[in-house]
Amino acid sequence: MRYNLHTDFILSSTVDVLEDAVTASKAVGSGIETFSLNDYLMQSLFLKMTGFQEQKMKCICWELATFDYEYRYEFSKSPLGECPTYKDKQKIYTQLVLQIKKNGLEFGDLNLNKTVILNSTISDISNTFEDTNLSIWAQQNFNTFKEFCSSVQTGHFANTEKSLFSDPKLQDIYENHLYRQRNRTAHNTSSYQQNLPTLKTLLDPKYDNLNYFIYFFLLVLIDKIFIALYKKYLEILDNGQTT
Description:
Layout: H1 7-11, H2 15-25, H3 37-67, H4 69-77, H5 86-102, H6 114-129, H7 133-137, H8 139-149, E1 157-160, E2 163-165, H9 168-186, H10 199-203, H11 212-238
C-alpha cells in the first residue's frame, strides 16, 4: 500500500482517542464525589474527537490534490476551512469517491463491507465505555446510545457516491445536535447561556439524542467510512491507475 505524507494519520482510528480518555480517567474512580468531572471530561474528549476528524478531512483533501492536478486547481480556488459541518464532510466524501471513480473503480464495485463498519463502530464505543466511570456518570445516556444503535442499519450510510448519510435522522443529529454542541463547546458559548435545558427541550423527543455517546458513535462511523474509502483510493494508485 502506498504511503504518503499523511497516510498514517488518515488511516489511524479515532477510537484511540476514546481509549486514551478512558485510561486517563480510571484513577479518579466513579464515586458520587466524582460526578462533577463528567461534563468537563466529556466536553474535552468531544473536542479532541471533532478536532481529530477535522484535521483528517483536510489531510485527505491535501493528498487528493497531490495526485490530481485538476482537483488541486479547484481546491486552491476554495480555501479549506476547519471542515466541521456535515456539508463539509459530505463534499469531501463525494470528492474522494469521484477520485476513486476517475481512477477506474465504480462506486458499485467498492465493496466497503458496511456490515463490518457498522458492527465494529457499535462494539468499539460499547466496549470502550462499558463499566467505566464515564458511562457510570451518564448511565441513562449510555443506555440511550445502545437503543439508538439498534435502529441504525447499513442502508443508512454510504449508499451512493453522493450520500454520506442517506438516513435523515443521522444527518439531523449531526447537523442540529453534534455540530451545534461542537460550536458551543469550542467557543464556550454555554458560559453565558442557561446551564439547564428548558422544559420545552426536555419534552422534545429529540432531546434523547443530545448525548456524547451518540456523538462519538457518529464520529467513529464517519471515520471508518473515510478510512475504508481511502484504502480503496490507495489500492488503485498502487495498481498504477493514476490520472
